[in-house]
Amino acid sequence: MIVELADIGLDGLDLEGDLPATVLECGADDPVRCAGPIRCVLHCQVVDRELLVDGTLSAPLEMRCRRCDCLFAGRADHIVYHYDQELDPMPESVDLTEDIRESMILAFPSYPVCRESCRGLCAQCGTNLNEGTCNCKPPADMRWGALDRLGLGKE
């Protein structure tokens, strides 16, 4: 998103637009990726040779649950966006795309979960425990195994 400084009046400049999801450069293996365009609603001002931009960013997301590995949809809504840059020397325009990209990625959830009650995968066989149970037995508790082999604690 490019801001043309000549277009900014005394009251500032309101900008609305969409950036393609490809600006985030998310790969197929990323746990969170943009599922559609990034909506930008921004207000730009030049104050004392400084560009100030405030607004919000929103986008649909596709996420992979960290517990059960299923894909699910979500949204990043009303992410507060702020940008300021000193304009010395005064350029003709400022490209906000990279800064918007960074703000979006920082707003992604670090541990996406499809729902709070997600039971995840069985650690032994990999069965999705949200879809059913498995026949795996819990692993034996071997923490005291070394002492048991020494015969300690048995009378």
Could you please describe the fold and organization of this structure?
By secondary structure, the chain is mostly beta strands. The chain has two domains: 2-117, no CATH class; 119-155, no CATH class. It is built from two helices and seven strands, in the order βββββββαα. Strands 2, 3, 4, 5 and 6 form a five-stranded antiparallel β-sheet that branches. The longest helix has 11 residues, at 97-107. It is elongated, with a radius of gyration of 25 Å. The termini are far apart. 14% of the residues are buried. The mean pLDDT is 89.
Please compute the radius of gyration using only Cα atoms: 25 Å
Number of strands: 7
Compressed to H and E, one letter per element, the order equals EEEEEEEHH
Please give the largest β-sheet.
Answer: 5 strands, antiparallel
Summarize the structure.
The chain has 155 residues and is mainly β.
Secondary structure elements and their pairing?
Layout: E1 2-4, E2 13-19, E3 32-34, E4 38-47, E5 50-64, E6 71-86, E7 93-95, H1 97-107, H2 145-150
Antiparallel strand pairs: 1-7, 2-4, 3-5, 4-5, 5-6
Question: Characteristics of this structure?
Answer:
two-stranded antiparallel sheet, 11% helix, five-stranded antiparallel β-sheet, mainly beta, 155 residues
